[in-house]
Amino acid sequence: MLLSRLRILLLLLLLFINVLGKNRVAAFWSLSVCRVELQHVTLVLSAARKPKPRMADKRRQRAKQQSQQRQSQLPFLTEIPSSQLDFRKSSPPLTTTPYVPAKTPDSTRDNPAAPAAMSKAQTLLDAQRKSIAVLTAVRTSIEQKMSLELVEASLHERGYWYVDNFLDDHEIVQQLQDEGATLLENGMTPDMTNLGSGEYTVALAGGDAQYVLAPRSVEWVVSATKHVPLQLPSLNLDNTNCMGVMRTFDRNAYQASRTLLTDGDDQAEIKPRPFGTVATKEGDQRKITMRYYLVPDATCWNASSGGGLSFEDSETIYAVRNRLVLWKSDCVAYRPEVWKGSEEEGESLASCIELHLISTSNDETR
């Protein structure tokens, strides 16, 4: 500041000398420089006199600017009243409103069809679970109990093979047995090749109508058809096609037919059936036949109850609950033994699933 004042005094002195010496150019230059210097001093003096803002004032100003900016961006904030909290005064007691939960529509009342739809969905889900359980149980039994080496060795030496306790789930076995009785009451026809034997048959071909009556039986056939050929690859069996039959024996019908045929002589001898193969005609592609027995348990069903299989020049395989018998359809002679049934009350019915597996070609498999 002192330096600026000295410069101004020197310029005024030069201006006075130039005016006395009548040097107009120098005088004009001195006057211009002096004017600029005076403006600079004026600015410095005005800035020095202006007080410096305090930090609190700066914060207050910044807050005001931010508030104005928010209000310009969100106009609805201006409608919100100030909180006006004063903690120095005691607050009035709070008034509370009891909680009332929001009313939700009653689906069962507003939609009368909802319970029926839920029940149907649950029924379908249960049916699917049972179906998967049966398919899995049959597949597991085939994989665990039908050893390739064991079955092929027995087929090569004797032409047949069998295993007891085929399914480990006895509840499924009982369901299959019950379905044999259900099918008897819903469309089974007498076995025309053995009239008077008390045997009734129906093809297990699937379809909606039959699946409603015998779902477990259809699933047994489906799973066995798919997995037995995979377990016995050397036999060249088709795992997509088969011939399935449910056979059910009715003791009451058998006794009625015997009374008719023997004039009431219960002691009349029943002639055994002849031996023969399953496949009897040229071009018949049936290569493996299976019988799965669904008879009452051993307490009321034994060898004298009949229904077994006798193989020529070999043994008789009796009808035993949960027993699976397998033999070659085209070259092994067998004879189905006459069903006689059990004398136990309530055990007049017995069934078996008969399944024929076919070859994938016309080549004979021995």
Structure description:
With 366 residues, this protein is an alpha+beta fold. The protein has a domain of 237 residues: Jelly Rolls (Sandwich), CATH 2.60.120.620. 43% of the residues lie in helices and 16% in strands. The protein is built from ten helices and ten strands. The strands form two sheets. Strands 1-8-5-10-4-3-2 form a seven-stranded antiparallel sheet. It has a three-stranded antiparallel sheet with strand order 7-6-9, with no helix packed on it. Strand 2 and strand 3 form a beta hairpin. The longest helix has 32 residues. About 4% of the residues have low confidence. Keywords: Signal.
Number of helices: 10
CATH topology of the domain at 123-359: the name is: Jelly Rolls
Nearest-integer average pLDDT? 81
Distance from N terminus to C terminus (CA atoms, Å) equals 126 Å
Order of the strands making up the biggest sheet: 1-8-5-10-4-3-2
Q: From the coordinates shown, what is the CATH architecture of the domain at 123-359?
A: Sandwich
The main pleated sheet reads as: 7 strands, antiparallel
- Give helix and strand order, one letter per element, not per position: HHHHHHEHEEHHEHEEEEEE
Q: Kindly state the number of beta strands.
A: 10
